[in-house]
Design a protein that fits this description.
Layout (H helix, E strand, L loop, with lengths): L2 E4 L7 H12 L4 E4 L4 E6 L3 H11 L8 E3 L3 H4 L7 H10 L4 E6 L15 E5 L4 H10 L3 E5 L12 H8 L5 E4 L9 E4 L6 E4 L10
Parallel strand pairs: 1-8, 2-8, 4-6, 5-9
Antiparallel strand pairs: 2-3, 3-7, 4-7, 5-6, 9-10
Length: 206
């Protein structure tokens, strides 16, 4: 059964966050809130966690996984960023954006798009997600918690606990975080390409 953590949305309890991070470090898979939907997350090198996310979401090998980072310095360790792209991302983070960029050698090959060798990165503006990332000290390998038989992500922690009780190790609930996913922008080529329109403002990328 998944552990259930009721966490304050603005002032997350340090003890609860510490317990969540211990679970992640022990190979656990968590369902956690972000500024755009709940997400599934595990440690970067956790192959079993990656396989579990694929199974829960029924994903193929072309799916872009996301490295959810605490800040821009951390993001820069895992993707290649030109000066122009740097300015674009810097002006848009933290926020409800996922950026697809060429990965560095620090990203395991199994996370990369098989042809483009790219990976998604984002910096959330959510106190609970940021608390987990800060305590963990590294990105969370993540994917939006959208199940194959659903048109919209689940928004209630108790509902996620009920549905995924035997497939995740913990559910972190800090209230409804909405159903609109991030805006996904591919910055791996010369011009930005809007892959998915979501919660983030797209005007600066058009």
């Amino acid at each position: 059964m998944a552990r259930y953590f009721d966490v304050h949305p603005d002032n997350p309890q340090r003890r609860a966050i510490g317990q969540v991070v211990d679970l992640v470090r022990d190979g656990g898979l968590i369902a956690y809130p972000t500024d755009s939907c709940f997400a599934l997350g595990c440690q970067l090198g956790n192959k079993e966690g990656l396989d579990r996310i694929r199974e829960i979401r029924d994903l193929d090998d072309r799916h872009h996984f996301t490295l959810v980072c605490s800040d821009f310095a951390q993001l820069g360790q895992f993707v290649q960023v030109s000066n122009a792209v740097f300015r674009l991302i810097k002006a848009s983070t933290p926020g409800s954006y996922t950026f697809i960029l060429p990965a560095t050698r620090d990203v395991p090959r199994r996370l990369l798009h098989p042809r483009k060798k790219t990976v998604g990165v984002r910096i959330p503006q959510h106190a609970v997600a940021q608390a987990i990332l800060t305590e963990l000290g590294e990105p969370l390998l993540s994917s939006t918690l959208l199940l194959p038989d659903q048109d919209e992500p689940m928004t209630q922690g108790w509902e996620i606990k009920e549905r995924l009780d035997h497939t995740v190790d913990a559910v972190i609930d800090s209230g409804d975080c909405g159903t609109e996913p991030t805006t996904v922008i591919d910055l791996s080529d010369t011009e930005p390409e809007i892959v998915r329109r979501g919660a983030g403002d797209i005007s600066r990328f058009e």
